[in-house]
Each structure stands twice: as structure tokens, then as C-alpha cells.
Amino acid sequence: MTVPLLLVLLLLSSVPPLSAWDPDLELLDLVEEIQINFYTFLSVEQDASPVEIKKAYRRLSLILHPDKNKDENAETQFRQLVAIYEVLKDEERRRSYDDILLNGLPDWRQPVFYYRRVRKMSNAELGFLLFLILTVGHYAVIWSIYLEKQLDELLSKKKKEKKKKLRPAEEPRCIGPDRSDRVSERPHWQDILPLKLSIWLYLSIKHLPETVQEVRQFYGEYQQLKQQQREEAAAEQEVAPRERRPKVKKPKQEFPVYLQEEPTPPRYEEAAASIEDIEEQMDDWLQEQRAERRKASGWAQHELSLLGRLMVKFPGGSPGRWEKIAQELGRSVAEVTAKVKQVKDNVSQTSGLVKLSDLKAPPLPVRSLPAAEEEEFPAVRRRNRKSAEGGGRV
User: Which portions of the chain have biased composition (kind: Basic and acidic residues) (predicted)?
Assistant: First the structure.
């Protein structure tokens, strides 16, 4: 209860006065300071016009000016004259002054009265007043708490008495200690706020070394706890890799059970096909062997004549000329090109160009070329075999 009251008072004391009230407050302060009717001070009537008020101000300013007035209070009188003229020349402030003349200054029943008093106080006076208000409010709160507890206990006691009267024949029950016996302690003058603050400050200073020691002890225990936690974490990290992994039982190997299969009759078609493949492989091998022998023995006369015919068949500029000639001769491209170059060199060394016609001689009969017959015989045999198989399938 004391804390909210303190906050409210602090807020009220820190709020600056509103600027709209400043002219009215200045007017009230001026009226309270001069304590003479402004119209009487200027020697004019209350219903005088602004022109008359201005003439009176000029006349008095020549008299009360500090340069011409040798009185000690000349500056104060001239300042009051200027303030009176500023009030009366303004229509709104003049009406406010006329209202003050009619109703008088605010009294103690109006908030402006206290505000004007507080506004004129110094910081020390304002602090003392605030502390006094807090002290009285704190003591009033203590008494209110005490009276509230007393009222609660009184009401609870009356309720219990009514219950006892309504149930007189019932057996007594085990009832705990009566709370009404516990009477709150009555507030004393030692409970006022200044004494409470003084006692609290004295005890705080007295127990300051013990408090510092307890804080240090608590901080040391906290550091030890953190160090212990770090050591435990490091130990757990070291132990974790060393932990043995659980043994996993290897599954038993199941050996396959071989069943005796029934013998299947041989398929003669596959056997025949395999024999034909073997014959083709043998024919290819024989051709490769013959080609190797030809390479080792050099170029024969019939190969040279065949080379001439192939060069006529595949003239210069035809795509893949040397590859096709090499394929027909059964030799590599390098061998064919080397032989052609050799023949050209021989022709260029001899006189005349008739030697090139030797390469274009008519082909010899097949009967006189046993090597060509040996090369063509496997291919003919394969064609005959394939045609026989095709006729059998149809």
C-alpha cells in the first residue's frame, strides 16, 4: 500500500505546471504581492478605456522611472507599474482581474491554493513535505492492516459461535488451535517510516561484512560447481569411446541344399550350332594365319595385280579408299600405302610411264592361283552351309 502511494506522489511532484495556467498563476501572485487595487494604483476608474489606462501608465512611468525616482524602491515600483499595465491592456487578463476583485483570491478549499504554495517551495522544503506525507501514509496503512485483521477475526469468531448454537447435541470434534486466539500486534510509534528506515539502514551496515562473506562463499561454491560439471563432461567424453560395443550374434550360415536334377535329353540343335561356331572360328583362325604368312613372305604377284585393279576400282578422292583396298587385300592400311609408294618410286626411277600398266593387267584364271582358292574356299563353304540350314527350316 505504501509503494503505490509513494509512486503517485513522486509522479505528481515531477509533473511540470501546465503552460495554460501560467498567466493566471502570475496574475494571482501579482495581486497577492501588490495588495492594492490596480485601478487605484493608476488613478483611473474601473471602467476606464484602454486609452485612459495608457495615458495613466505614461504619466506614472515618467514619475516612477528609476532614472528620475531617487527612492530606494524605485525599481520595484516601476516593475509593478509595468506588470499592472500588462494586465489591464489585455482584455482577457483584465476580465480575470475583475473576477478576482469580485470573488477574491482562492482559499484553502480550492486546489490552486495548495498548488501555489507548493510551487513557491524550494527543493528541500518540497522533499521534507513529501517525506512527511509518506510517513503519515505509511502509519495509516499499518493501522488499516491491523484493523482489517481484527475485523476478520471478529467475524470468524461470531460465525463459529453461531455454528455451536445450531449444533449443541453433536459430539465435540478434534479442532485445531483457534485462530481467534492469535491477536495481531498493535502498531506502535516505533513502526513509523523514519524509524523503520533508520533501523533497516543500521542493521544493513552492521551485517555488511557477513553479507559480503556469504556472497563470496556463494560465488566460490558456484565456481566449484561449474568446474565439477566441466570435469564430469570431459570424463564422459573420454569414457564414451572406450565403452565396449554390444556383441552382435552372427547369423548362422545356411548351406544350400543341392537337389538331384533329372537328366535332360541333349538338344542336338544347340550341339549343331556350337559345331558350326567352332568351324567358323577355325576358318577365321586359318585366314589370320594365311594373312600373317603373306605378311612374312612379302607381296606375291597376284596381290600386286589385285592391288592395281583395286586402285582402278577405287580412284583417288573416293571416301575410305585405302581402308577398302586394305580390306580387299587382307592387309593393313600402312602396308598398302607403303607398297603403293614403293611402286611409284620404282616407276619414277625407270624411264617412261609404261610400267604402270603392269598393275592393270587382266586377272589371272582362278585355277592358277592356289592361294586365292584357299582364301575363298571357307567363305563358300559357310554360304553353302547357311543355305542348307535355311532350306531345312522351311
Answer: 232-243
